[in-house]
Amino acid sequence: MDKVVATAAEAVADVPDGATLAVGGFGLSGVPNVLIEALYERGVGGLGVVSNNCGAMESGLAVLLAAGRIARVTGSYIGANKEFARQYLGGELEVEMIPQGTLAERLRAGGAGIPAFYTPAGVGTQVAEGGLPWRYDGQGGVALASPPKEVREFDGTEYVLEHGIRTDFALVRAARGDRHGNLVFNKSSRNFNPLAAMAGRVTVAEVEELVEPGVIDPDAVHLPGIFVQRVVALTPEQAADKKIEQRTVTTPATDKTVNR
After folding, report:
1. What pairing do the DSSP bridges indicate for beta strands 20-23 and 133-136?
2. Which H or E run contains 49?
């Protein structure tokens, strides 16, 4: 039952070229940076990544992307990642864009053993009708487009069929975890991490704080250990290394603006 692995390098040592990965995090929140860095050091490539976005500020999945290690991205957000946009528009990267809620449910469904489900999101658009550019030809044309999806009517409303997602591996980050793999996520890092963990056939979790079994109240567990195969304890320095994507500050109020 002890799932703790000594190092991140050991935890991802069997990830091969061409593997598919579900990766947790949103922006810079809850991203398994240490595991991603270990994967980068191994030199594997041709990866198929399923994640909300593909890294930011030269961190997270952006490390693998910039090195040309990612062949396909399934996600819902490009954002300010200029290298992501460049590779996509240049025909170097295949990208399947999915509505964010649909992506979350596809991961959850895959982890729950549900092969497919119907949703109204995307009906009447290229999401359902097909034609979304998956790969450009580098000259402004579309080399590969999304196929049409099945649409059915239920009680007078149309729904599109979406398939659950399963990946070879999943990489996630948790605030706390025990040796059995039970995980607790902090605030917004709870968004895609539990779903990505469920979708992976082999799930590796880096945890900021490793505790013994029984320390975490069962009612406080966000993801049961049955979904986790390997746990890596971060050092205090690794756990504290958290970047800020956009720092926002307020101007101190002057005497003229203070309510009295």
Report:
1. unpaired
2. strand 47-50
Q: What is the CA radius of gyration of the chain?
A: 20
Rounded Cα gap, residues 192 and 167, in angstroms: 14
pLDDT tens profile 184-209: 999 989 999 999 999 999 999 999 99
Domain spans of the chain?
1-115+164-243
**Which pTM does this prediction carry?**
0.91
Strands 157-163 and 151-154: antiparallel
How far apart CA 253 and CA 160 sit, in angstroms, is: 52
Phi, psi values for residue 198, rounded to 5°: -65, -35
* Spatial separation of the C-alpha atoms in residues 152 and 149, rounded to whole Å: 10
Share of the chain above pLDDT 90, in %: 81
CATH number among 3.40.1080.10, 3.40.50.150, 2.120.10.30, 3.40.50.300, domain 1-115+164-243: 3.40.1080.10
